[in-house]
Design goal:
Strands 3, 4, 5, 6 and 7 form a 5-stranded parallel sheet that branches. The chain has a two-stranded antiparallel sheet with strand order 1-2. The protein is an alpha/beta fold and 221 residues long. A hairpin with a 5-residue loop joins β1 and β2.
């Protein structure tokens, strides 16, 4: 991946590289038309790996991350690790952009929000859990012991409550603004709002209206 990024950066600068043609013979490759800028911003996607956060910093890359497998405290630790790695490599620590993906729904009050997002978000978490189990089985060749319906429901309820309370941008304009303030203090520069996780069309429209209000207030922080 890092070799490929270096190759893309070389081409982006207008330089040429030598690569094999379709016939297997050496061929000179160059981008055309020339890019409008001299440099290409790059984001590395990572969650738990401290090593990847450090590599992103050392290479002068930005970071795209999520709270799916991280607590806010763990994210804070990794952002500090990333900023330190940038500084040690001679990059401006503050120039690195940390983009955080968050499931997002902003509504007029908490009762409305909870009613609209609970089942869609639990369905999303269930599908993620099933995907994780399938990947694990593919890697190990062994099927994980299946949970009973009661245990699965209890696990999903726990996951939903965690997401709702600390790992999403779900709530009212005021409560979400508090979340953004905390994340900004941790070093998060940008939030990538994941808004299409199964809420109804009407609720989706209401959510966008309140998200626009939140965006205006967040820019004033």
């Amino acid at each position: 991946m890092f070799d490929s990024i270096d190759t893309i950066r070389t081409l982006w600068k207008g330089e040429t590289i030598t690569a094999a043609s379709g016939e297997g013979t050496p061929s000179t490759v160059q981008l055309f038309p020339s890019p409008y800028s001299d440099s290409l911003p790059t984001w590395l996607s990572t969650t738990r790996s401290l090593e990847t956060f450090a590599e992103a910093g050392q290479g002068g890359h930005h970071v795209l991350t999520a709270l799916l497998r991280l607590s806010p405290d763990e994210l804070n630790e990794r952002i500090e690790h990333y900023r330190s790695a940038r500084a040690e490599a001679g990059h401006n620590a503050a120039d690195g952009k940390v983009t955080l993906m968050l499931h997002t729904f902003v509504g007029p009050n908490m009762d409305f929000v909870s009613t609209q997002v609970k089942e869609p978000l639990k369905d999303y978490l269930r599908s993620h859990m099933e995907h994780t189990q399938a990947v694990s089985q593919e890697k190990t060749g062994q099927a994980e012991e299946s949970l009973s319906t009661e245990d699965e429901d209890e696990l999903l309820e726990h996951a939903y409550q965690r997401y709702f309370k600390e790992s999403s941008l779900i709530g009212t304009v005021d409560s979400c603004l508090e979340t953004i303030t905390r994340l900004k203090a941790m070093g998060v520069d940008e939030i990538a709002c994941l808004i299409d996780f199964g809420v109804s069309e009407n609720a989706f429209t209401v959510g966008l209206e309140h998200l626009a209000q939140l965006q205006v207030k967040a820019r004033e922080l």
